[in-house]
Amino acid sequence: MHATAAPRNTEKTFTKVAFFGYDTFSAQKNLAVDEILEEIAERENILFVRFYNFSGPAAILGSSCDPDSGLKPGAEKKIEVSRRITAGTTAYVDGSVLGYSIIGPTSLNFESGEVIFNDRIAMHRYFGVAIAAALRSALHVDPDAVSVGKKFSVKINGIPFVSNGQHFGKSHAFTCHGVIPILPWNVEAINEVLNVDPDDYSRIPSMPSAIQFFDGGNEDGAEACKAAIIKAMLAAIPKDALGDAGSSLRGEVLERADALAERKYKGAWWVRRTDIRLDPDTRFCPLYPD
Asked: Is residue 126 classed as helix, strand or coil in its secondary structure?
């Protein structure tokens, strides 16, 4: 299980790396933007990188997570609920986290050579190294304390800090996305809406947050902390050069995302899917599968 590195193929067009933007949207719209970018990525040979906030608290089920297991009764009346296309357990997001998505064709062709993703672990290792490097650069943390987990996490002092979700689309494209806790997790808010394994629940208060390693831990520095991480991640992600998505493409994607969020990600049919087998799981997503 690895990402295959091949000599540069001069017959192929080099992969463009495009910064899509830094936005604040609902969880449902953020999920819709990712799905649309995955559709475009392979066709246009673009690796998209985007960062985002969440406009309100939300619970995001894994692709096959049973909502009756992951959510407490009445959760859907209290906060926004949706389901992502990546696997894993139920995630809780709010304004205290920074979301990121890296979306591109499964074959990246740079001047230094071609990288082909054969599986999700290969993708995690490739981008996990970049995310770890960015955290070492942006935060005042011992470089040796930051490590890439065996599967889908980046850890600080051996504790999961960032957890990635991966998806391979039908169009030979992938999505790698996750959230970075800028402020400490809101344990009370999580407990109000999620069913969390008791062992995991007891570990949440000791999980690291970025602000602990930035500006002396002053929570008023949260936005500056986000900006530093974004800058470091854009520098660390492998590329020949960094451009932007362009206003025309961005406008098209955001318009389509509004419609897709309404049609799919807000739909009870999607949240409570009956067309696939749903798995009961109460693990707290950032601790899964580590």
From this structure: helix
Kindly report the pTM of this predicted structure. Answer: 0.94
CATH of domain 3-287: 3.30.930.10
All structural domains of the chain with their residue ranges: 3-287
Give 157-180 pLDDT, tens digit per residue: 999 999 999 999 887 999 999 999
Beta strands in the chain (DSSP E): 3-6, 16-25, 46-54, 58-61, 80-83, 91-93, 97-105, 107-110, 113-117, 146-148, 153-156, 159-168, 173-181, 242-244
Tell me: the pLDDT tens digits for 220-252? 999 999 999 999 999 999 999 999 999 999 999
Query: Using an 8 Å Cβ cutoff, are 211 and 218 in contact?
Result: yes
